[in-house]
Write a structure and sequence with these properties.
The complex is a heterotrimer.
Chain A (H helix, E strand, L loop, with lengths): L1 H29 L5 E7 L5 H11 L2 E7 L2 H10 L6 E2 L3 H9 L34 E12 L25 E4 L2 H11 L9 H12 L5 E5 L3 H6 L5 E5 H10 L4 E3 L7 E6 L8 H12 L1 H11 L6 H6 L2 H4 L8 H4 L10 H16 L3
Parallel strand pairs in A: 1-2, 1-3, 5-6, 5-7
Antiparallel strand pairs in A: 4-7, 4-8, 4-9
Helix pairs in contact in A: 5-6, 5-14, 6-14
Chain B lengths: L5 H24 L16 H8 L1 H34 L3 H16 L2 H15 L5 H26 L2 H9 L4 H30 L2 H6 L7 H8 L6 H36 L1
Helix pairs in contact in B: 1-11, 2-11, 3-6, 3-8, 4-6, 6-8, 7-8
Chain C lengths: L1 H31 L10 H6 L2 H33 L4 H9 L6 H12 L4 H7 L12 H25 L3 H9 L4 H12 L1 H16 L3 H5 L8 H10 L4 H22 L9
Classes of the chains: A alpha/beta, B mainly alpha, C mainly alpha.
Main location (chain C): membrane
Subcellular location (chain C): Cell membrane
Keywords (chain C): Cell membrane, Membrane, Transmembrane, Transmembrane helix, Transport
Chain lengths: 358, 266, 268
């Protein structure tokens, strides 16, 4: 009994000390600021130095919270209970959030730096007139591969190359129903937003015929595998491909010509916002050319910020793999919000494909 | 005490090597200047420097430890008392149904627990943050405590209790003098396993947290998309070393006092 | 008499059951009866009996069984030998400590360790064995799962063995029982509660494993846990996700009924 009491006291004392320590640390960061905003973003998706700089310039303290999937983020915003002033959803999620009335319209007069954004990336179908969103980063879906480990004729300019018999047991796919089903549809020359059972059936059968080539369907873990030359070919997002190529210079990235996905992550102000002015100030700050260029350097994804691009290494922005020309972009499609029913179907077909792997 | 045979030593050795292999792997790469967990380039301490420069990460680390310790403690108290209560239920069917209820949270995937707790908290109107996370961690740790304490209670010789009662011990005395000391290993096991559950949890915490409160797990999982930084490895390394030091230190301090005590008694 | 004594301390536990077990179950059952538009339906239940989910159920049980079996095979001797060491409680702590390091990080480490250029293949190569991809196989999946559950299995068994009266073992040996008989007739029966507890805390969560099915098994193994996660987080079909969860809970209750204590108990 004595040791139980001792242990209890030890735990309580430790917790009290830790509470004190945490309080001291937090107090150190908040000195002289009453104003705060809460930014809800993907992990490692912003240069932390910029957050400090923002606080220094505006006196607004930033609470930074992170999420790991669009859907989980939406659930949190929908349920409320926490004051998120800024969130960074992908484009299809913007549409869903709009439908659920979870977004607050932006006041463009408070975001003068919007002029820095390349007009090509404004006024897109998922948000006409940028009523709710400001683009943050964008990219494509394509194939990252290791030219030193595949046959020379495989350039992945066509999805067809994935079916090449020399790739048996070598292809990795990303674990996303939209991405994989979209790839199946694209490889048939169809739209990746198809709402047609016959087409989806065909796409699934086409994917099942790819099974012998598939090594695994995984998530973000593909990055270390590609870097380490463990994996040869992988379907993934351009942003991640850029991360991989940064570490492993052998790698190459291609967006097949039949078409693929063009994605956007955008700033929005969710209806949970408590400091709407602060949120606008933050968005405006992040759009500043210098800031955006610095952030780009840190994150490594493609930026829609034209003013920032002028400040960046020309080698980066001239890389057609990550900054495809407008002509190439024409072939890419943005995910439309399919509605839950079709989303469910995509998911069922994708599941069927996954279960065919054994 | 019998000495372990060489075969037994080898067996235990292998088990420990496997248990620690991934941890040493993580710590090894925390010294990598290359920035990823592949291709060790050269030795650096910069990731450790980063940990101490990042006060946000430090606060998150401290929060994580506080939540683990407090939720473990409270779950252990509730779970132990619950287990004692379950054993006292004589009806076999009744007892098995309580145990089934007990295990619901163990079998439910984290997303389900997280989503339903979130709905629960917002329905009641609890502000999301420290409290909601703490309560959730207590909630999902209780069943593991019960399962750890239960076998000790079941194997306990009931004549001990009878004897104590015959000698005039009150119910409270039976509990504190007979039952608790006997099931103590189970209680500690429950506490440690509760800590494991708490430290490992990502999904439940993610759903029920808010207002700037975060734990290390949430932070690490949300880094996955853009790549986990070696700062996280460094922080794990620090936590690991600190834990080992505390455990070994605590063990030898308490054992020395035990030796002194018995010495005095003799 | 004992019954009355237990009511007071049991109170917080009952509150917990009501708030955090029964209320969520009711929520989950409620959601399982809703379709995508929020109308009442039994379609989700009908859907569960489609071949895909039945296959998944079998897969989940099969892998949970294998994981539990291997965990037990590794954990029992470990627990037994640990009780024989000096400083046994310290060694036990060293079994627990690894489980306090974040699982995702450890999984990433395993990806590195099992990799083509990882330490295991390098080791094998030194014996002239060609490097092979260990990741994304049944072996790697079960290995990592066993790794996760080992402390949960060792602890209850250790606790059961620890208090085992050595005189019983000596007595059995004196009466001419050999090692195996002693183990089978004396040691094992006395530790059965610990083993049962270990099996429960391994098998039940193993049914709903998800993360490592993707990271380590590359989605070659699809369990009910994976399906639930997908339904909630990708398809956003809480109805179907909840339905699968209801079945998981039902399966668990069935397991509890079959493995429930037949022994007397009922004192304290």
């Amino acid at each position: 009994m004595k040791s139980l009491v001792q242990a209890t006291i030890a735990i309580i004392v430790t917790c009290a000390l830790l509470f004190f320590a945490a309080h001291q640390l937090e107090a150190g960061g908040t000195q002289g600021s009453k104003d705060t905003i809460t930014v809800y973003n993907w992990g490692e998706y912003i240069d932390p130095d910029l957050i400090a700089q923002f606080t220094e310039e505006t006196g607004i303290k930033v609470i930074y919270e992170t999420f790991d999937s669009n859907e989980a983020m939406m659930t949190k915003v929908q349920q409320g209970g926490s004051a998120y002033d800024i969130a960074v959803p992908s484009e299809y999620m913007v549409e869903m959030m709009k439908e659920e009335d979870l977004l607050i319209p932006l006041d463009h007069s408070k975001i003068p730096n919007m002029k820095n954004i390349d007009p090509y990336f404004l006024d897109l179908a998922f948000d006409p007139g940028n009523k709710y969103t400001i683009p943050y980063f964008w990219g494509t879906v394509g194939i990252v591969f290791n030219p030193t480990m595949v046959e020379e004729h495989l350039t992945f300019e066509s999805w067809e190359d994935l079916w090449d018999p020399t790739l048996e047991g070598k292809v990795f796919l990303v674990d996303g129903a939209r991405e994989v089903m979209g790839m199946g549809l694209n490889s048939l020359g169809e739209s990746l937003n198809a709402k047609d059972d016959v087409l989806l059936r065909q796409a699934t059968d086409r994917l099942i015929s790819l099974s012998p080539n598939i090594k695994a369907i995984i998530g973000d873990e593909i990055t270390p595998l590609m870097i380490n030359n463990e994996a040869t070919v992988a379907l993934t997002w351009s942003g991640q491909a850029a991360d991989m190529m940064w570490e492993n210079e052998d790698l190459d990235f291609a967006v097949p010509e039949e078409g693929s996905n063009l994605w956007f992550d955008s700033f929005v102000i969710p209806k949970t916002a408590a400091n709407i002015d602060g949120a606008h100030a933050f968005i405006n700050f992040m759009l500043d050319a210098d800031v955006s260029a610095q952030n780009n350097d840190y994150v490594g994804y493609s930026t829609p910020n034209a003013a920032a691009m002028e400040l960046m290494d020309p080698e980066v922005i001239e890389d057609e793999r990550f900054y495809p020309s407008e002509e190439l972009r024409e072939k890419l499609e943005v995910y439309e919000n399919l509605g839950l029913e079709w989303l469910g179907k995509y998911n069922e077909y994708f599941l069927e494909f996954k279960m065919s792997l054994r | 005490m019998t000495k372990l045979s060489p075969g037994a030593r080898v067996y235990l050795g292998i088990v420990f090597i496997i248990l620690y292999a991934p941890i040493f792997y993580l710590i090894f790469y925390s010294f990598n200047s290359g920035g990823t967990m592949n291709n060790f380039e050269s030795f650096t301490l910069e990731h450790y420097q980063d940990v101490f420069d990042d006060s946000r990460l430090l606060v998150i680390l401290i929060n994580t430890v506080i939540i683990a310790l407090l939720s473990g403690l409270i779950a252990t108290v509730i779970g132990t008392l619950g287990a004692i209560g379950i054993v006292s239920v004589k009806n076999k069917k009744m007892r098995n149904s309580i145990l089934s209820l007990n295990n619901v949270l163990i079998v439910s995937p984290d997303v389900v627990i997280g989503a339903s707790f979130l709905i629960l908290f917002t329905m009641i109107g609890v502000k999301l943050g420290f409290t909601s996370v703490l309560v959730s961690h207590i909630a999902f740790s209780i069943p593991i405590v019960v399962l750890m304490v239960l076998p000790k209670l079941l194997e306990m010789n009931t004549s001990l209790i009878d004897a104590a009662q015959d000698l005039g011990a009150s119910k409270r005395e039976v509990l504190t003098r007979v039952i608790l000391p006997y099931i103590k290993p189970g209680i500690f096991a429950g506490f440690f396993m509760a800590i494991t559950y708490s430290l490992d949890d990502f999904a439940v915490t993610f759903f029920v947290t808010g207002n700037g409160f975060s734990t290390l797990s949430v932070e690490i999982y949300s880094m996955a998309r853009a790549g986990i930084t070696l700062t996280v490895n460094a922080i794990s390394g620090i936590v690991f070393i600190a834990t080992v030091l505390i455990v070994v230190g605590y063990y030898f301090v308490t054992n020395r006092t035990k030796v002194c005590n018995t010495g005095v008694q003799e | 008499m004992a019954n009355k004594a237990a009511k007071g301390p049991l109170f917080p536990y009952i509150i917990w059951i009501a708030l955090f077990v029964i209320a969520p179950i009711l929520l989950v059952v409620y959601y399982s009866l809703l379709d995508l538009n929020g109308n009442f339906t039994l379609a989700n239940y009908a859907n569960f009996f489609s071949s895909a989910y039945l296959t998944m159920t079998l897969t989940s049980f099969w892998y949970a069984f294998l994981i539990t079996l291997f965990t037990l095979i590794v954990a029992y001797p470990t627990a037994y030998l640990l009780t024989k060491t000096k400083h046994k409680h310290l060694w036990l702590m060293f079994i627990i400590i690894p489980s306090w390091i974040n699982l995702l990080l450890k999984t990433y480490a395993f990806i590195g360790i099992f990799g083509l250029y990882g330490p295991i293949n390098a080791f094998a190569q030194s014996f002239g064995i060609e490097p092979t991809q260990i990741l994304f196989t049944d072996f790697s999946f079960i290995f990592v799962a066993v790794y996760i559950f080992i402390p949960f299995m060792i602890i209850p068994i250790f606790n059961a063995l620890d208090k085992l009266n050595p005189t019983l073992v000596y007595a059995a040996r004196d009466l001419g029982a050999n090692r195996i008989t002693t183990f089978r007739r004396v040691i094992f029966p006395l530790t059965i509660e610990g083993v049962k507890s270990g099996i429960q805390v391994t098998f039940i969560p193993a049914l709903s494993l998800f993360m490592i099915t993707r990271l380590i098994a590359g989605n070659q193994v699809i369990t009910l846990g994976t399906a639930i996660e997908q339904q909630f987080l990708v398809a956003q079909n809480w109805g179907m996700g909840s339905t699968i969860a209801v079945f998981l809970i039902l399966f668990m209750v069935l397991i509890m009924l079959f493995t429930g204590q037949k022994s007397k108990g009922g004192r304290v």
